[in-house]
């Protein structure tokens, strides 16, 4: 009996210890995204009340920034938080400078008496402010926003380039949309907005010396639906879909972004993906045939979407373009494209062939390298750094060109070791046009990049030359992104995994731990009226042939703590339907579809995922 009591006491003790350990762990984590480098919680708290002020630093240089902060906090708390130049000695939020910190680093010190926001540069103050505001907004969910826990946070980014790319050619998104996008990304310390400004489906930037780029190149016939197989323009049909940014728009946008410490990097995609350019100025193509800007893809439509790189007048126009871009975008970078070039136009072009001879090149592959180096030189002549998508060119590229590595990680590993600076956006981990749920249910042109998969992105893959890695980005091609809500839906919550992977130097949390954090941020996206995908709750069905050649199904989830319920009788399952128990299931005779849903307890978490058995048989190769 005594032994039993002793054992019971031991078990109880263990239980108490493990519960308090779990609580301590929870307490040590404010669910911040990205996770700061170091975070130590105390036991007291700072209370924001009507007397709390934001103490302006000496001089008026930073007044506008701090006033923005005070307005933002007042909005969140629905209570005015004023700025002031002096304090009674406690109950204030102070901005101070520590020159020893890195240019984006910060320290946040919350005590019972005051909050201190410490950085070397305004960018550090901004990031510290984002952290503080995140704490307030997460607390708002528990009705506790005025109470800031005592905490010391020191933090700085792992990478300088923490980017998102939007393709504004395939679909156009106006300035107001981009401003809202910048607002959201900057809350998560993402700091580069790469604009893919030109492609076959539209030229989106005013170039004053080449007005037809926008009067012709920015417009195409309107089409709705699936990108592949979109109907070609009819004879005489008006090109009414499109738009572009005027140079004034860009000034305004750049200014807006700068206040949020976001750098806007322009891209003109050359020498391929250039149908809009060719439609505006057919003389710059090898065939010189008139073209129209397309809705849908030109690959099978025999459209000349590549510029002639033999012709000197092509370079004259490109120089004008680069010159104006360099004037209107203050970024130190200009992206010059370079992906997916159909080089056979050059093989059949006398002018291009002559260029190959004159320059002592072997073939069209080397001709492309020649073109890239020549355009890169124009960019450098303007004091800027060129970026390209290139990775497989035969003749060496100038190592001054930053490599944006997109097909996989191998390109970045290779070129970083050849002396190129690199930015990683490996498609299978970071492309935001890839869909987030079952392909059968989506109108998206390519493949899958689920939320849990995007979390696996490691900007420092094995073998990479670490000192040449600028960072990485999520890239959102917009073939199937026709409006702002879809733009947001494709970006969030995958943008959160990007922010974590590109900023946080803290040990990487396991997927289930990070997922919990994501879940606590979803209400903040809702609060900002930002759309996001909840497809990560979807059941994932895998179809296989069993030993008897019959199709069997297994079901997986990205979220570990949900139950999946299913039905084969074409009724919508709920939590009272058969629960998937982890074993392969056979398909009842006559079933047309499987319908699945995930629940956490009594709360429905996923949509109902309905897939035809015929589709599953196709996948199982039956
Ligand atoms: C690309 O996805 N073509 C860069
Ligand atoms: Zn040519």
Give a description of the structure.
With 622 residues, the chain is α/β, with parallel strands linked by helices. Helix content is 32%, strand content 20%. It has 18 helices and 26 strands. The strands form six sheets. The protein has an eight-stranded parallel sheet. Strands 1-7-5-6-4-2-3 form a seven-stranded mixed sheet, with helices on one face. Strand 20 and strand 21 form a beta hairpin. The longest helix is centred in the N-terminal third of the chain and has 26 residues, at 2-27. The chain is globular, with a radius of gyration of 28 Å. The N and C termini lie far apart (63 Å). It binds acetamide and zinc ion. Zinc ion (ZN) is lined by residues 286, 308, 310, 346, 349, 351-352.
List keywords for this structure.
about 625 residues; binds acetamide; binds zinc ion; alpha/beta; globular; seven-stranded mixed β-sheet; eight-stranded parallel β-sheet
Topology (elements, then pairings):
Elements: H1 2-27, E1 38-47, E2 53-55, H2 63-77, E3 82-84, E4 92-97, E5 106-110, E6 114-119, H3 122-140, E7 147-155, E8 161-167, H4 175-187, E9 192-196, E10 198-199, E11 202-203, H5 212-215, E12 219-220, E13 241-242, H6 247-258, E14 263-267, H7 275-280, H8 312-328, E15 333-335, H9 344-347, H10 350-358, H11 364-381, E16 385-388, E17 402-405, H12 410-417, E18 422-424, H13 427-430, H14 451-454, E19 469-476, H15 484-491, H16 494-503, H17 511-527, E20 540-545, E21 551-556, E22 563-567, E23 585-586, E24 593-600, E25 603-604, E26 609-612, H18 613-619
Parallel strand pairs: 2-3, 2-4, 4-6, 8-9, 8-19, 9-14, 15-16, 16-17, 17-18, 18-19
Antiparallel strand pairs: 1-7, 5-6, 5-7, 10-11, 12-13, 20-21, 21-23, 22-24, 24-25, 24-26
The structure holds acetamide and zinc ion.
